[in-house]
Records
---
Amino acid sequence: MIPALFTHVPVTTIKEASDALNHYGDDAKLLAGGHSLIPLMKLRLATPGYLIDIARINDLRGIREDKDKLVVGALTTHEQIENSPLIRKYAPIIGAAAKLVGDPQVRNRGTIGGSVAHGDAASDLSVALFGANASFVATGPNGKRVISAVDFFLGFWTTALNQDDVLTEIHIPYAPSTNWSYQKFTIRSQDWAVVSVAVSGSNIILGAMGEIPLRAEKCEQAIASGADFEQAASFADEGTSPSSDIRASADYRRHLAKVLVFDALTEAKKRS
Amino acid sequence: MAIVRIKINGVMQQHDVEDRTLLIHYIRENSRLTGAHIGCDTSNCGACTVLLNGSAVKSCTVLAVQVQDEEVTTVEGLSGDFNGLSPVQEGFRQQHGLQCGYCTPGMVMASTALLRENPKPTEDDIRHALEGNICRCTGYEMIVNSVRWAAENGGGK
């Protein structure tokens, strides 16, 4: 399968990328590792006329410490995150989730920014980042905005990024190296999550249980008011709207969410 | 159209291709190296795996224009002391790691990348490294044995 015709526009600075997005408007998409976008283009589910290739913007690479948080460049690959000592030390849940993205070849090319900007509710990194209270830096023509995870995911494949925004950085507050768990249930080893759960501190976040990653509010409240894990997990599907698709029925997802929340709470406790 | 230069197996290639040309098509059709295969064409099966600057990638999900001036190694770029076969290739021969052979170039490249990074992998390491490569006939036991054989007989050359 070959994508529809497009023009490749390589850029080397964030400003050039933003200008190009402005110039080409709705017909342009950003290209980083391409591991969400290229498959969509091959299936002709996306047919942008211009691909603004940001992969050679060096400012968008790398992981650094900044006071009380890690700053992760949007072009950092899953493989780099998986193997980063800084991630292991300050945000272990993100490393654990990165290790479960696709397969080694995908992790060598796919980027954290691309995964998040794609806005898929089953994205391992989106769910884990939400759990870790991460925020996302969008750089547009009028400067930078920092968007919290709760405001970032808006709907099916839709985020708070505007057409002329470049997702430049992800900020991850230093998270405890204890009391966290990322659970992912797949039919096949390299697949998307049927359901996933991130537990980090008092956060319980569900993946693939609706159009966006969702907070399991009822479970969090139950834990806060002293419920045991089994009771708390029984609320896992409340307020969710899972779909039925080739991987699983909605009912099965509701069941899995409860099982995985229980498993995640149990594993998180073991680490504390 | 774009003039794309890619060093493949140590030889600089230059072809005028459409911007939408996938790396696997550049390798097979422009550079006439047909070792890397197109299997699922959806970045699942791994038959198109090549090394890009030493890392395993699925060349059906990379555009040729994305790797301008970079280095690619295909299965044709491997060589070694076993009648010209690399240790990984010889391992697949010795341990019957293939039947129809369609997935084999991808398996060999993913295994080579693993052994370069981790010369003494455990069975779990091998299985994790080959998660992105699907075989529909041999089964994975003998493929894992092939990689083990290679690890003991020269590694990821």
---
Amino acid sequence: MNQPFIEVKNLKKYFPIKKGVFSRTAGHVKAVDGVDFSIYKGETLGLVGESGCGKSTTGRLLLQLLAPTEGEVRYEGKNLVGMNTSELRKMRRDMQMVFQDPYASLDPRLTVGDIIAEPLEIHQMARGKEKDRRIDELLNVVGLSSYHAKRYSHEFSGGQRQRIGIARALALNPKLIVADEPVSALDVSIQSQVINLMQDLQEQFDLTYLFIAHDLSVVKHISNRIGVMYLGRIVELADKRELFDSPQHPYTQALLSAVPTPNPLAKKERIVLRGDVPSPANPPAGCTFHPRCPAVMDRCKTVKPVFQNRDGRFVACHLYE
Amino acid sequence: MERKLLEIKGLKTYFYTDEGVVAAVDGVDISIRAGETVGIVGESGSGKSVTSLTAMRLTPGKVVEGSITFDGKEILGLSEEEMREIRGNEMAMIFQEPMTSLNPVFTIGDQIGEAVRIHRNYSKAQARARAVEMLKLVGIPRAEQIVDEYPHRLSGGMRQRVMIAMAMACDPKLLIADEPTTALDVTIQAQILDLMSELKASKGTAILLITHDLGVVAEMCDRVVVMYDGRVVEESDVVTLFTHPRHPYTQGLMKSMPTLDSEEKRLYSIKGSVPAQGSLRIGCSFAPRCEHAMAICREQSPPLQEIELGHFSRCFLHASAEGRTGHEPAVH
């Protein structure tokens, strides 16, 4: 494989927990705690995990919507961390985001045309007639019509709103799109329309996706490679087929077995994990998964496993050392 | 065949709004036998939640027509007082949002014990003991301590267990679960589904499970009812529904779902979107999105027909072809 398009190294984000009248820092929520991965041009990297595992924070750190506590994000070799605002603004043209909640991510006081035009204006990419033409074009690309530009977002259904969000993200001809749970708020029959649209656009505009979701079947469908996150770290990252055919990390195995299959005749062994995900403010020592792991060993309780490459697939588990 | 525990017949629940009448449930028949798990599947706005709320007599909408019998007794005519005797006692409900359906100012023990204090005249001490027993039953560790805690101390999965403990406190004959695992993570969902299956096996409780997740339906239900725009479009046992869905909507729904096993490059998708609430129904409401729509579909509403024993579908395709010959749309 060639040079990675995006390279993330030892990325960390700690949120301080403030207490008392003087807002003294009482501790940190380790939302993202040392994440390494690369994204290659034109591929879709899926990021899965349960709520609070840090997948959304990772997406935001990638776009520098949040400043990382530590680590590097390299975009075509250039480190984004520590760039000043005007440099970052230029970079952001290439990197856009599609949000989860199509009801909250569109300004209700703007027409759809204004919503899509906003990035064009900010980056001074188009004005006047040229801008209108571009709005038309974008609406058509995502399967809406030109006359929708005059309407307000509340007039649209969830699926249509997500199309508007995608049109806005495409306005600046980005190279990378971070999609944070783009279909999880949608009904099944609408979900497949949006997934198909995203795949068509990827082909048409040569886009690279970081696709964040908790629904494993959706992630499997759209991704080339998948990273599984647990408590702020990636525990396994592999080609999607390898990941689903032979998951290595005990957490991945449990996660895959927990997904209900829409086949009433399939009898499968489900690994039911004990307990809940521990708090990221006070993660367990050693491997953070050890209190719930069915294959726990003594070493797991004290030594943090290294995230290591074994023939292109990465696993952080003492079982494979 | 066992006796029917809950029987909903020709139910119509309408909402009278400023913008007009919304027929949220428009002629629905559903029955559940004792000990059976029946799933209602449908997308947002299909009327699945309103149907279940009407069965509990909790809907703000108006029941315009129909009957609901529970354990042989018509409940739509009961007084509020008589209904309270049944609700929480013989028929209980768990809701989707475990975060908002518990009262933050009462202890968990108070909330679980409330049902037995009201319905069984338990003393405070007895109710607390029952609460501890229920917490243990639903697998909450340190039940003796948790019983005196407030809901905010618990995680989402734990709260849903508490909700189940509350609903099961009076050993109801019927448990209505409205999207019980939708707000939960997959690994926690697996725990809750396991718990519900265990309770069903040990207590013989019938479950009406409302969900949009076909995977959950496949794992939990004996029989499935598919709803679309306020009506039942298909009903059958779970295996038949997944192996031989007959209504074009059910078929489309099955195909548009990405699964862990499939290797399809493109997903099938049903064109268009779910009809807006309160739009006027002329003909089959799925016709505008249906690949097989015929002239008649736009003029008349198809009846719900029994196309095979125990398999019902609401579509004109079956009428023209005597049910059996294949009308399976081409696989994409």
---
Amino acid sequence: MRRQWRSVRGVIAVAAAGALAASGCAPGGGSGGNGGGGALDGVELQVAAKWTGVEQENFEKVLDAFEKDTGAKVSYESTGEDTGAYLGPKIEAGEAPDVAILPQPGLLAEYAGKDALVPLEGDAAKALDDNYSDYWKELGSVEGEPYGILIKAAHKSIVWYRPDAFDEAGVEAPATWKDLTGEVSGTLSDAGITPFAMCGASGWTLTDWFENVYLSQAGPEKYDQLVAHEIKWTDPSVVKALETLADVWGEKTMMAGGAKGAVQTDFPTCVTQVYGQQKAAMVMEADFVAASVAEAGSTVGEDALTFPFPAVGDDAPVVVGGDIAAGMSEKKGTQELLAYLASPEAGTTWAGLGGYLSANSEVEAGAYADKTTKDLAQTILDAGDNVRYDLSDQVPSAFGGTEGKGMWAALQDYLRDPGDAKGTAEALEKSAAAADS
Amino acid sequence: MATTGDPADAPERGAGAAGAAATGGSGRLGPPSWLAAVFLLPALVFLGAYMVYPIVFSVYRSLWDADGLVFVGLGNYAAMFASESTFIALRNNVVWLVVAPTLVTVVGLLFAVLTERIRWSTAFKIVVFMPMAISFLASGVIFRLVYEQDPDRGMANAVITSVRDTVAPAASYPDARPRPESPLAEADGGGLALGEPASAGDTVLLPLVGVPNDTLPDGTEKAAEPEAKDGAVTGTVWLDFTRGGGGTEGDLDGAETGLPAMEVQAVRDGEVAATTTTRADGTFTLDGVGGGAYEIRLSARNFTEPYNGVTWLGPALITPSIIGAYLWVWAGFAMVLIAAGLAAIPREALEAARVDGGTEWQVFRRVTVPLLSPVLLVVFVTLMIYVLKIFDLVFIIAPGSVQSDANVLALEMWRVSFGGANDQGLGSALAVFLLLLVIPAMIFQIRRFRQENS
């Protein structure tokens, strides 16, 4: 009893000493910042994004550089998974953060419509002009006015595979869709290895399949028209893309668990099927699969490799998702911070920390820490103006981002029974039209 | 009934001032009414802020559009009843309402009656009641795993498939298949047959692919060339795939493995003339064939698909599956309430029935259940109210792809309001609709309380 008390007391003493030391340090640290001669001394800014854990730490390190240069104090707040649900009430209460990092362009348009955003000005607007291609500029604009900067990209045109499975079957990473669905998948299944694990229960993974096939097959112009709903979903190009998907989706032997199993497997489970249970050889999803690969006990770059989504049409597709930074207050420093986030310096710092991919054309491939990311960044830079943002994140979320509805549900039904591409296209058109109204 | 002037009633009156104010018109023995109001104020404020205001606001909000800017009147209600998903949700709610409370009450009754007679009844009751201590969310996560299709992950299918496999063991080569250009093709009676007939003295090659290396039986050897033998058909069944690629299709390339324990038959006119199984190197000898040509067949038994278990989380079974999880959570609750009721039943009634020569079933049917009926009714109606607002179990157990098949009103309300479309106007309309559905059960419950207290 006594001993216990003593040890508790010891802890308290140590904690108190720590607190003293910390408070003692604070003024010194502050004056150190002043030494930098920043233009924004005493300015306090708030940034909100959905990142937590390592992603948050890395972002804060990027912010540190800004603090050092300008003397401003930037505090970070995590919005949790649902950024829209976090920001909505904050905006209504007039307590929005100075800079918000939005996971979808849809939110950008919504907030701009509510006058909750401040357009990019001065250095920030210039940084966007200098460092980003036209497509990204347009993506961050609402009615011609630039609001947002895509500061962190997610590469969605990747196929992850298990090299030991490929070695056993004696196949190489394919360059075309025909090779992928023909020789590579055929040989794998001859060898008794199921080619694909599907994540059908997570509808968004199916939209990524469709987007890649469509972008490569129909081309970027049609892709943009489909995003804007200028062409209907019943367009022959959509039907053709769906029929192409049936090369994989229609073959029971292609997918772990057959069509039934494919529709029931949700997102991280399908990664486990490949890297943990070794039930399949490939899984098609974005770069962020890396986290689930590590959880399943494999190492990216060693027993978990990637190849770019193969070309269905003339060019291989590069579909990118990502987070868009936008200013939400007129406060001094907001525009400076946005300008910094759009700069190649911020991107290069971030790239060196890992777990990051930039859409900034001035961030060189050499800046990335590991080879896998370097290769991915290179594909984005190579694709140049043909890179496209995730379609399902650009259409109204009632159509492109709702569990059990719209695009998710239509594609899940198609995966269950890929007999009727036309019927699926009609179902897509019906819910797209409903979401527009 | 409270009679004025009974001193024992006085303290109760002080506490329940509302009752006193309402019924005490005849004599003014209680405190002044303004004091009653003061005492009631905290409760009223609390009720107002947390009950009445949200309800009123929901009704108000349901008359406005998604952004809350345009007044749409009853438009949201029209949209609600025009939408197909509302009807699926409503249908599932009806299924829930009919099945779940009945099932839980019956199981609770069984448990309560049976535990009365066992020695470790308290321990048993604690175990059955334990799921109530787990949050619905955690129960949902547990059952999501239990119902997983893959028998390696889902417990329900693990049990079913292991029972089934002991009864009817799966074949060794369910995935084996011929290449499209191979001489083997689907046979009429199932299995695979060689296109060319063979007769005694011939050797045949039967190449197959699609067998995972790690599923080959122990002791499998490299495939060997068949040796011709007089009076018999000989051949080799082997895995025509060279590890790491290479090799010629349809040829024995040296590095390829045989497929042992494969059943081979010689068939003529639909009659099986000879049967044998392959050796460790994949070779076989069909002795005892006479003259003439035979069809060489790999029997269907070799390729029986393993039983994959039940698709619990598929569109057809999802609602029953979730009701199963619900039963697991609530059976303990029903059991405890019914057991309490059971303890209050006069023993004499039961004993009298037994003395009169009633069987145990008759005693249960004619005496126990009628005496318990008030308790059963309370349990049943309480469960009905809970079932109507069921949300968490459905939300967690149903995978995204079948969520619209498992949909219930409370989930639909959430999905419409926050699940992407963010139409809180329509969501409020659904909330109001749900409230209207719960009200009859509530009125019933309140009436019963009143009757009991009087």
